[in-house]
Amino acid sequence: MANLATAAGVQGKGKYAIRTPIIGLTKAQIIEQGRLLGVDFSLTHSCYDPDEQGRSCGRCDSCLLRQRGFAQVGLVDPVVYQTS
After folding, report:
1. pTM, whole model, 2 decimals?
2. Does the structure show a pLDDT above 70 at 20?
3. What pairs with residue 56 in β-bridges?
């Protein structure tokens, strides 16, 4: 759409591409890649419904996938969950 809906795209001055390098990876594979890159996972969360303090709910699909992914790679998830 960016190639059709922007002046640069229409005029041929720019070609836009969306890259999604992790879209085909499992949550465990994403976490492992993050570990290899030195990601500080305590600065991340995946929750759809965090509380007022920003704590992840621990119950939504995204939290459950995250928890399973950390378990599959044998790492402890540093996120503080409401249900902890």
Report:
1. 0.76
2. yes
3. 81
